[in-house]
Here is the input.
Amino acid sequence: MEPGSVTRGRAALLAITLAAGLVVGFVLAFRLDEEARRRLRKTIFELRELPFRVFL
Amino acid sequence: MSDRYDVIVVGAGVSGLTAASLLSKHGLRVAVLERLERLGGCCSNYDVNGFRPEVGAIFVIGHEFYYKLFELLDLRLEDYLDWKVIDPVYHVYFEDGSAYPLPRDIDAMAEVVRSISPGDVDGYYRYCREMGKLFDAYLAFVRRPLPALQDLTKITSLARLAANRELLYALPVNLKLLFRNMDRCVRDYFRHPRLQLMFGWENLYAGLPAHRCTGLFTMMAHMGRMGYYYPRGGMIAIPTALARIAEGFGAEVRLGAEVESLIIKGGEARGVRLTDGTALTSRVVVSTAHSRVTYLKLVGEENLPSWAARTVRRQPCSIPAPLIHMGLSRKLEGIRAHMSLVANPREQVDNIWVDYYDRGLLYRPADGAYLLVCPTFDDPGLAPEGKDVLSVFYIAPYRLRYHDWDRIAEEWAWEVVRFLDGRCLPGLADAVEWLDSVPPTELERRLNVAEGAFFGIEMSLTNLGPFRPNYRSRLVPRLYLAGQCTNPGLGVPGAMISGVADAAVILNDWNRRLR
Here is the structure.
């Protein structure tokens, strides 16, 4: 077996895992009710803002 | 050229006057500038034809902290303020016409619990025991003698103050409440929905619904049992006392002096410019305004990095607390306590947030929840002889999707009055002699608070502690912040603590970097 083929296999596995994760994430997100979606959006917003708030 | 003042404090609210009194006691030349013609900011009363309703703050929680402040000032609180304990804590009106007083006495309250749901009495006593542990830890904290003001902000001093046996006993309860929301905590103690509502609505003071609010707020109902206090003369008595103290130590308190902007020299705050064009220089500026007002208006976006202006603008505000103030031509029999809650079933109260508030909608008055405050119940001097003052607090969004607050405020207020007349206060509509509807937009204009949120920045975990604007501004040297938008936030004692902390930080910085 050539050394390069193992790397390609791992890369493909990684890509498939990421894609599957995205699909599962989207499915879960779409199944959330309105309140849970609001909380998710708010959490993402807050996490993004947190590092900046420390420097005010 | 020497500076005219050592410290200029923008805003004569509780935090500003606390900082001013402590700093002037320590020999600094202090000026306090207030935009309005009255003291107190959100902790004040205004006067219309002898009716003196509260502007925002309605009672004092944690009055022990005031004694600590007076300890730092080497003064006796009794010489300046006269407290009255609020009892019953609340009177609750339910949708079916039933009403319950919520007395302070723990056993008397147990009888109220028994009359609603006998099976919840054990849960009530468990609630009292567990909250009592937290309260004991708080009392042990506030009863310790304070170190010198300059040492107050040191970690070692704070740790020494906080380290006590009671805190250790309270730790399991503390952790349980911290990592659960308030809704879940209340359900843990009470099964009957009415009791869940009675012990689980004070999240409104945090500006969050019970399912989004930290369980630590479950403690609030117990704090009421331990004592909510009301100063004689109304809430304005507190800033009036602090202004008297500050002036006694040599500070200058100016009313009607609106600050237009800060004087920024070499990137540092070196004074203020008033709207009449006067420039006042100082070594330090303390701003007690909302962080958005301080940074975006007084400092100016041009003096801030773009990321900072964006972060300040985006930091979420607490909810607005719109009000309807009324002067009543006679005393109504239906008013049976200083504070009353008019409520619907618990799910309906919680759904106000999801169904209306988040969507920018205004509900029909019958679907709302209202806190009625009658300060003349404990201090008749706040209205002309034989008359009453009544204020109604409710939940409503700052921006309405389909309406303009300025157009509908009056009409909406009268709808609420008619609803309350029918539900629990017969004769109210006829007794209204004077009415002032203060929607969030008007609150913003009157008090200069962003989005009409006089609780300042949202009281969520990601907006507390290091994530709240710092006492010593990290963006503008020589600028210090105090008030509801800094730590710890929430209410009059919170504002007072921020004033103490600011004074401590400034005194520590004075010799090192401010001279």
